[in-house]
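Troubleshooting log. The previous structure file for this entry was overwritten by mistake, so regenerating from the original sequence record. Sequence copied from the archived sheet and checked twice against the printout by T.R.
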Amino acid sequence: MTAEPTAFSLANAHARILLVDDEERMLESLKALLAPYSLNIDTALGGKEACAKLLRQQYDLVLLDLRMQDIDGHKVMDFMADKGIQSATIVVSGESTFSAASKALRRGAYDYIKKPYAAEELIATVSSALKKQSLEKSHSAMQVRLQKSEELHRYIVNSSPDIVFMLDMEGRFTFLNSKIETLLGYRKNELIGKNYVQLIDDKDKSKARYFIKEKMQVENSGVNMEVRLRCRDDQRLPRYFEITFFPIQSSSLTLKKLGPTPNKSKFIGIYGTARDITERKEAEEFINFQAYHDLLTRLPNRALFKDRLSLAITQAKRNEQQLAVMFLDLDRFKIVNDTLGHAMGDRLLQSVAMRLESVLRAGDTLSRFGGDEFTLLLPAITTKEDARKIARKVINVLKEPFMLGDNEVFVGVSIGISVFPEAGNSMEQLVQNADVAMYHVKGRGKDGYQFFTEAMNIDCSNRLKLERDLRKALENEEFRVYYQPQVDTQTGHVVGVEALIRWHHPERGIIYPSEFISLAEETKLIADIGDWVLRTACNEVRQWIASGLSNIRLSVNFSPLQVEHPRFVENLFKQLQQADFPASNFEVELTENLIMRDLENMTHKLSQLASQGMSIAIDDFGTGYSSLHYLNKLPIHTLKVDRSFIKDIQDSASESCIVNAIVAMAHGLKLNIIAEGVETVHQLDYLKKLKCQEVQGFYFGKAMPGKELFHSISTNFHHMAV
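Regenerated output below.
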């Protein structure tokens, strides 16, 4: 009787079974018995065929007879074990001895069924074996998946760009991924069981303790913090990390109570990630540094200086203290920059910054305000004398020469000082008033310091208006060139004229150079004004030369800013050519101080001018260096005795030792000499007796416009023979 199909056929449908027996009739009987259950059934007639099929095909179950002619069932099971074939085996045999059954079971048989067998028993045993095999396959597959999943997760964790870690309740490491070695140099086994604190930089330990001990245990979600972690190699700087913490909580099943009260959770540890943000922090710090520092000198910039000044003012008000603000402007920096180039100018600024920092007190702030301007904050000073001492130190430290490549360079500094609260209560007032005081230093000769006073506000107001008007004067054609004659003392002939500028102000009338030339130099307008004077004078005097005064000499004063320009000689030649003015009729007037600033460079420039036939005159001689060394070295043709010495000649009986010495020296050096400021006949007679070659001054008339002077020369003065 055929057994009815059972539920197992659905679970084990299409399972593959191999029936092994050396009696074909038995194989057919077994196959017929199992046919209704949707199984894939193969048969093997004898042990040898069974082994061959087991090698070619994988079976879920093998029904195996023990006693077979070629290879018995025991050897087939040995073969399966040797080849690693995992098919379940049910022995169906006529042997009834205990030893046979025991031997089969020891070889791994699932069960032993004695022939003749009951159909129900066989079907039940097959079903049970297939179910067991299916479960084992599922378990094996799950183990493989779990192993792969574990390997995948381990790979993901260890390949993470971040450090992944776990801490116990005491803050000790219980897990670390391999990234800890890449980023910080520690091996995992060095840190497992160690407290996290040993990784935290000393500056951030209190922050880390707060987050982990206080904040972490009351937060249900993740907590972020940024800290510096120490590297294993002490030579390496700590690195910045963004650490994200998550609490590890456990439901305590032992705390269940009667009723619907939910399980309680308790904090048992921490897991988290640490991301290296060193590059980001360095970029942020660099951007912040750029925003508040000058990248050339590494000093605080204007914005940071004002922030610190604002804070210092607040503290000074609270503590009823004084503070000082200094405004520093380098003298002669533009000369270096234009002559040696911007790269050398930058090196000079860096060297200046280093020297200035060397004389500051702790707590002082030095900043680069822009260009060659610096500001200095002196907080909490006791008296003005504190600021005065610093100012003197600054001046002295900058007096020493700077070596820029092979060049020895000298610069000075003009310092304006404003003291809180006397010179202002606000940041803007203090900086502005220090700036005003600095310009007063510039106006009186540079290279010094000056405290701000209220009187400067009036001067400053006038100066601002004058500066505004000065900028419009060239455009509005308000300047005029006046000329003062230079007379030969022996012949009375007018041998030359000195070009002098006058400003015809629309409201104030004629303004003399002493009132606006220093301002023109400060505002850098002097170059344009000087070029205009040169162009105008050359064009006008050239007409005189064409009209018969062929040997008359034109003398023009040049500003230091013009002369110290690298292309001064080139520009002067170009302007004379454009005006078609003969170089032999042109005289360059310079001051002693200007020449001595850079004697070597001036020697080169003046030699170039002299080689083209120009004459060189030293103006205001006797008031500066008066060094015989430079008189011998330079191609100088004329000395102009300053008017202050001529005033000493009061009458024909008086003597002026200085004038006597200058004239005698000029004669000895075979130089022409011109006495300025001659106003009386006594002075003229005295100079004639000394054989001073030329004179100029009010005795011969004040400086006058070109047309008037040309007419006067033509009618009243003896003019030179043509």
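The first helix runs from residue 8 to 11. Archived copy saved in two places this time.
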